[in-house]
Amino acid sequence: MAEPLRVVVTGAAGQIAYSLLYMVAKGDVFGPNQPLILHLLDIPPMMSVLEGVVMELADCALPLLHGVVPTDDPAVAFKDVAAAFLVGAMPRKQGMERKDLLSANVKIFKVQGEALDKYAKKDVKVLVVGNPANTNALVCSRYAPSIPKENFTAMTRLDQNRAQAQIAAKLGVPVRLVRNLIIWGNHSSTQFPDASHAVVDLNGKLTAVPEAVNDSTWLASQFVETVQKRGAAVINARKMSSAMSAAKAASDHMRDWFLGTQPGQFVSMGVLSDGSYGAPKDVVFSFPVTITGGKWEIVRELQVNDFARKMLDTTGKELEEERQEAISVIGA
Ligand code: NAI
After folding, report:
1. Which CATH number fits domain 157-322: 3.40.50.300, 3.90.110.10, 3.20.20.10, 3.40.50.720?
2. Ligand 1 within 6 A of 185 CB?
3. Is 53 close to ligand 1, i.e. is its CB under 6 Å away?
């Protein structure tokens, strides 16, 4: 058996982590032959809750789980980790402006960036889930100069999975037959869920989704809005935010990053923008990517029509504003 891989999950006493830890520990992300040591970070008031999570992980009797390190100290949490799920964040409280939320989180992700820089493996792969995920990932990477910028990503996979599920339901086919949905931009309500390059396997024949759906009005309106507002719909129904599906998306994202995408398939990830597709540079922008050998690459030369252009510009502008707000908190 391979040497155990050290993996950190922050916000480990929270609700996403409660689903995510099980998925990771049973081998869904790093494969069925990769032993793991899980590092669990949360804040001091949550240590007793975290103790319960540690007990449950032990009680799962999982063969791949070689150790668990619960802690409230980033120096311990990030020591020698090869993968980091940054889930923990300050939640939005009543009366809090978006700006206040951003300011609180920028500070958390500065501390965690510094700790990654100091203690983690230099090739650590970092996935930021905690919101505002794209800008948190940007801040984190700025404070970890010894780790390549490509190693910091933000999660838009939940949005991609939601989009895929909406298309599958519309066509009445199993979700596994639909692929290459794209989420462009920010993980926020300005994101652009784009089905124009997606394909569906209909009786063994790959068909373009726009052709199969044959309803361009629905694709440009109801579909986009449903995906953009899905998080709010789940909160309305459950009185708590998406957790099981967020954990599954985090697993999907990290698994594809470590193990690669399938031939002919691309996935969406928030990555440091190089200005592709006219997106602003130096923000963490969600693009379609393919992954081989642990390295992602933006899919090139997809057609962007006028509608898509407008949507990409709107979400890009929001990310530039968030970056500006972050800079006003931490300095340039
Ligand atoms: P939760 O409130 O249940 O758990 C968050 C945990 O993070 C808490 O245990 C809290 O104590 C901990 N935490 C806070 N500050 C921390 C710090 N400095 N270090 C370590 N831990 C810290 O929240 P939940 O539902 O698990 O969501 C976590 C985050 O994920 C939220 O920011 C949420 O908005 C975001 N989210 C992102 C999604 C995405 O698609 N990118 C989807 C769903 C949620």
Report:
1. 3.90.110.10
2. no
3. no
Q: Is 42 in the pocket of ligand 1 (CB under 6 A)?
A: yes
pLDDT in tens, 252-282: 999 999 999 999 999 999 999 999 999 999 9
pTM above 0.85, yes or no: yes
As a whole number of angstroms, the distance between CA 98 and CA 252 comes to: 28
Distance CA 216, CA 223 (A): 10
Where in the chain are the domains?
5-154, 157-322
DSSP helix/strand/coil, 268: strand
C-alpha to C-alpha distance for 172 and 288, rounded to whole angstroms: 25
Between the CA of 307 and the centroid of ligand 1 the distance, in Å, is 33
Fold of the 5-154 domain: Rossmann fold (3.40.50)
- Residue from 10, 50, 87, 116 whose mutation best tests the ligand 1 pocket (most atoms within 8 A of CB): 87
pLDDT tens-digit map of 159-179: 999 999 999 999 999 999 999
Q: Is 66 a catalytic residue?
A: no
